[in-house]
Task: structure prediction
Amino acid sequence: MSDQTTTVAELRQIMADFVAEREWEQFHDPKNLAASIAIETAELMEHFQWRRSEELDAIKKDAALMGQIREELADVTAYLLSFANCMGIDLSQALRDKMVKNAQKYPAEEFKGRF
Result:
């Protein structure tokens, strides 16, 4: 399985099944899931805290560190998918809608190469 062959729906189902098998729905309310997303995102950020910009390319060459980063990103994704399941949000449509807004807010001809 890869990003090229896996749908968002399949990932959502993996999370829904995992949660249901453990009867964790009772704990997966929007507040707890939003907090979990923030906590896991902070854990991901810890891997970059205090690193200089010129050190960032070396991270990709460190297999152990990349493994930790990969796991934290998976945790963020897992809680994000669970949040979408809990709230009944279609992630694909939400992203498409947001990108339309972003394109209007940040026209390419005005923001190309800068913030």
